[in-house]
Amino acid sequence: MKLSPLRSKSGVTLIEILIAVSLLSLLSVGVLIAMRIGFNTMDKVDTRLVSNRRVSYARRIIENEIAGYTFTMADWHPKPETFIPVPFNQWEPQTMRFVTSYSLQDAWRGQPQIAAFQVIPGADGKGVRLIVNETPYTGPMQAGQMIAAIDTDSGVQFVPVVAGAQSFVLADRLEYCRFTYLEPIPEPPFQIWRQDWILPQLLPQGIRIDMAPLNPTPSDLHVSTVTAALHVNRTPGVIYADQ
């Protein structure tokens, strides 16, 4: 009996399968690495964008709070049956308090707020931060409750501004932050910036908040000095009918 020749069959060997799987694994690893790099880059860009927006937004808040300044009086009660009307303004190197028509929640559409700016120590005792507390303004009697005493030498003494859960952090990780106030003078240079405002009968023409970052980096947007004019719509020392 004559045997038929063996038929050739097409297929792949085990070595070819191993090579194909190895190439697919390398390709998958390359794709995953590329995706990981892309996600990391996107996170960094997003973080920097959020940080830059926060800086510009904080600056706009400060400028709007000062632009909305409203001159008001406070009724300080040294005794229950007596009260002394005084201008409700606190101008100090580390503390600033006044009534403004701008609010964090409602912008220019809300009711007047008592804005209290305060410089406090930063996290872990590194640097300082600038915060603001807002309290809805209801009238001179409420404002008078924020006055601790009136001294003939030092003037009006306010209760301290306390940082809490309601405090909004305007700037953090600062090397320094201080408030200065523009005072007009009759001789050249006709105006000076001073930290110790000792003229309760007058209002500063402008407010400057000097700030500098604790660890500046060239690629990031950092807080900078804010200078704003104080728009006065009332005259200190004059008692109005609604006060």
Can you give a write-up of this model?
- This protein is of the alpha+beta class and 243 residues long.
- It has one domain (42-229).
- 24% of the residues lie in helices and 34% in strands.
- The protein has helices at residues 14-67, 140-144, and strands spanning 69-70, 73-79, 82-87, 90-91, 95-100, 113-121, 128-136, 147-151, 155-158, 168-184, 191-194, 206-213, 226-229.
- Strands 1, 4, 5, 6, 7, 10, 11, 12 and 13 form a nine-stranded antiparallel beta sheet that branches. Strands 2-3 form a two-stranded antiparallel ribbon. The chain has a two-stranded antiparallel ribbon with strand order 8-9.
- The protein starts with 13 loop residues before the first helix and ends in a 14-residue tail after the last strand.
